[in-house]
Amino acid sequence: MASDCPDAPGAPDGDTLSVALHREEVRVGTRVVDTGRGLRLHKTVSEHPHHVDETLLYDELDVRHVIVDRIVPLSQAPSARQEGDTLIVPVVEEVLVTERRLRIKEEVHITRIQRSRTQSGTVMLRAEDVVVERFDEGPHKEASSTTRR
C-alpha cells in the first residue's frame, strides 16, 4: 500500500504509515419558531326555509285472532307460515289430556287336553227278535238281531 506521506512507516522511504480517520457527528435539538399568535374563527349561521314534498311509506298492521281449538301431537307442533301478505303465527299451549285406556293385568290360558279312561257299570241294552212267516215253505224263525240304544 502506497502513501503520500513521506514519513509513513512501511513506506518505501520511511518507517511509519499514517491513515487519516474521519468521524461524523450529529446534534439533534429543537428550536422555537414564531408562526403567529393563535387562531380565531368567526362563524355565522344563517337559516332559510325550504319546502319539501316527499312520499313516505309505512306499514299498518291488521291483527285478527282466529280461534282454532285443535289438539295436535307434539311431533306436529306448528310453526309460523306466510300465506300471501298474511303472516300466520300459531299460539300454542300445553294441556293435560286425561283418557281411559285398557291395561292388560293378566291372561288366563286355557288348554284342552283329551284323555280317556275306562268306566265300569251296568248298562241296559234292548234286543228285538223277529219272526218271519212264509207261506210257501211254512213258518220258520230267523236269527234275532240285537240293537243297542
Helical fraction: under 10%
Shape assignment: elongated
Describe the strand arrangement of the main beta sheet, using strand numbers: 1-2
How many helices? The count is 0
Q: Which regions are unreliable across 5 or more consecutive residues at pLDDT < 50?
A: 137-149
How far apart lie the N and C ends?
A: 164 Å
Structure description:
With 149 residues, the chain is low in regular secondary structure. Helix content is 0%, strand content 11%. It has no helices and six strands. The chain has a two-stranded antiparallel sheet. A hairpin with a 2-residue loop joins strand 1 (81-83) and strand 2 (86-88). It is elongated. The N and C termini lie far apart (164 Å). Mean pLDDT is 76; it is low at 137-149.
